[in-house]
Amino acid sequence: MTSGRPRCSGKGRDVPMRFSVDPWDPTYGTSLDPELGSSSAEVDPEIEVPAARWAPVRVDPAIDRPEAVLFVDGVRRIDAQVWVDEPDGAASPALCASYAAGVVCCCRERGAHLTVAEVRRGLITTSESGGNVVTRAGAYRVVSTRPREDVAPMQVLSLALQRDLAEVEVLTAATARKAGGGDRDDLLVVDGPLQGRQHLPRAIGFVKSHRSDYLPTELGRVVAALGPGERTPVFRLAGSWERHTWYLRLPCPPGAPWAGVVRVECRADLTADEAIALASLSQATLPRYASVEYKDARAPQNLYPIAGLEDALRRRLGDQNLLYRALRQAAHSVVAAATA
């Protein structure tokens, strides 16, 4: 975070202006939408304390960090947009995509290490004529989805791809826990909202950027007042899906009101005490993995284990140019065989 006092012209003289710079690299979008959309979700701010007593919550030094922290994430890449020929001569848009999910485990015995990774390639389509695509560089299995009148065709395909990626994330998380014995003292950190992964035990969702304004103004001021490592009290959101959630400020230089602030969430069916315990555990655990500006353009929100996991998964997706050429060759071969 950098601050300054530039001088701007006003009424014939220079006027000093205070400002601050968010360390988040704007080429990745913004960590905080300057015009937060109002949310229709119902908010219950009195899960941990009455709304009138909302204030920053300091970390409890007596909390023991978990024996292992499992970071789950996935990456996706569109290798090509394709068209599936229909029997009536029309063609339906589809996506050929490579995607992968995996888990990095940070534990006392072995430090940080990649526990499991799974790569898939899919032909995402709404066409009933879609089938597996086999190329010399790998096969794309068909992933069928239904068209929707209220959603653009390409958005339908993107949502279907994201759903399949989420399934792979759940699979890798379960595999990693099984490899670790399944009953050890661990914490599962899902990069992004927990929706669709709520059934995973001892899991929290880690939301790096903010697009909706959930809290009323007087409670939102508590977020801006958070110090490094402090969190808001736990509150409950009930909208398209329900969850317990809280804001946490990761270590970062002082400056912009929401710099370094993330939102963490957990299952709605937990008791208030269980949700508060998870919030306190996240507060004692996550800040130690926060990145710094000179190493990461999305510091401090892009946690080091997640950044490392993303890099490892992208390397496993293969060469995009090679896959694209293989897809074009496979399409040409099918056309040539059909016209022979």
Task: Please sum up the structure shown.
With 340 residues, this protein is of the alpha+beta class.
Structure description:
With 340 residues, this protein is an alpha+beta fold. It has two domains: 31-66 and 186-302, no CATH class; 75-184 and 316-340, no CATH class. It is 24% helix and 35% strand. The chain is built from five helices and 17 strands. The chain has helices at 153-179, 217-224, 272-285, 304-316, 320-339, and strands at 2-4, 7-10, 13-16, 19-21, 32-38, 42-44, 68-85, 91-107, 111-125, 133-135, 138-144, 186-191, 203-207, 210-213, 235-238, 242-249, 261-267. The chain has an eleven-stranded mixed β-sheet. The protein has a two-stranded antiparallel ribbon with strand order 1-4. It is elongated, with a radius of gyration of 23 Å. The model has no long low-confidence stretch (mean pLDDT 87).
Q: Notable features of this structure?
A:
2 domains; alpha+beta
Run of helices and strands:
EEEEEEEEEEEHEEEHEEEHHH
Distance between the termini: 65 Å
Helix/strand-derived class?
A: alpha+beta
In spatial order, strands of the major sheet run: 6-15-16-17-13-12-7-8-9-11-10
- What would the principal axes of the Cα set say about the shape? elongated
- Integer-rounded radius of gyration: 23 Å
Instruction: State the helicity in percent bands.
Output: 10-25%
Poorly predicted tracts of residues: none
β-strand amount: 25-35%
Please render the helix and strand layout as text.
Elements: E1 2-4, E2 7-10, E3 13-16, E4 19-21, E5 32-38, E6 42-44, E7 68-85, E8 91-107, E9 111-125, E10 133-135, E11 138-144, H1 153-179, E12 186-191, E13 203-207, E14 210-213, H2 217-224, E15 235-238, E16 242-249, E17 261-267, H3 272-285, H4 304-316, H5 320-339
Parallel strand pairs: 5-14, 7-12, 9-11, 12-13
Antiparallel strand pairs: 1-4, 2-3, 6-15, 7-8, 8-9, 10-11, 13-17, 15-16, 16-17
